[in-house]
Predict the structure.
Amino acid sequence: MDTIADIGGMQGFGSVELTEPFDPPFHEEWERRAFAMALLSMRVSGTNLDRFRHALARQHPLDYLEDGYYGRWLNCAINLLTDSAIIAPGAVEARARKLQGEDVEEPPAPEPQKPDYKPTAAGSIRLIDDPPKFKVGDRVRARLVHPPTHTRLARYVRGRSGVVRALHPAQVLPDTNAHFEGENAQHVYNVVFDSKELWGPEAEDFTVNFDLYESYLEETS
Amino acid sequence: MTFQTEASRLPVELRTEALESILVERNLVDTKVMDTYIKMYEQDIGPMNGAKVVAKAWVDSQYKARLLEDGTGSIAELGFKGPQGEHIVVVENKPGTHNVIVCTLCSCYPWPVLGLPPTWYKDPAYRSRMVREPRKLLSEMGLELDEDVDIQVWDSSSEVRYLVLPERPAGTEDMSEEELAGLVTRDAMVGVANVSAPGQA
């Protein structure tokens, strides 16, 4: 999906303020609670880290930007728990209104429908037998695709060419794992993109090193 | 694929309290476990871990060589591992080469060595601009790099996490490993600052 989460290269967000000398991980109590609940929601909903990131991205752009980082995590937890029918749609809103003293009827807890999913091992790194399709120094192109499902192929590198800089350990493919359609572990390549290839001749001089799963790549001359 | 907007009309604090009350009432989460996670990332895991890694690399050339070859294993030697640290790659700043880390798609960050990310790292402004105009953004953040410095941006798009090994500042030759660790900042290990010798900040 092309979501609000995929913001590499977007303009209009303004400047960045450093938070010195030390920015604590949490600034308010609710942020602590949202953080811990979101982590636990992965287990409670019977899902995985790729689904978590998909649920994080699958928010209305206004919510995503307005609710801030831990607000996003809360919305992500609600998405995960609602998808697996651990909580009913609207349950959090109803409870919140009740906590505010409103007289509202809360939806009953639904029959859970967790995905048919079990990881083959802990974490995301896997050993695979297939030899890597590309080697260090190969010129490759990131595919120009717009899948309707989860992906880590950011828009700003799609259709752009770069050079393989390194091979990482093979990893579970987020695109299918987020939808419980198999781990499909693949080789992962660090690919170097020149700034002019990404942003045109007027761009600053720099390079972006971007990690790409093998199926995101095609050969190019 | 439905977007869920209706809930966000209520304050996020209230919705957080609501979700916790539902999950606790139904015994789906244990508040003790929640407290353990929170405490771990508030007290035990943070940039002081990464600072120890960097200081050791500065004083021990063999360790540094191992660290650049096998980040995950060399960092684990110091006892740092866990979530968001399955495979850590350390990238070295040198005269003429400056590395900086970002995650444009979410806010991936090497938790075992740096803890949870600071506010600015999660800011859409940082995430959107670092891959498009890093020199300008770094300058706005207080790091002016010479025109001929090669800027390498690392976008954390897979499960690989990156850590910058900053340059050891001049004038620190007599400092101990522990004293050096005290100089290393989180910002330098992300690559938005350099490390300064004492009194030169």
Chain A has seven helices and five strands.
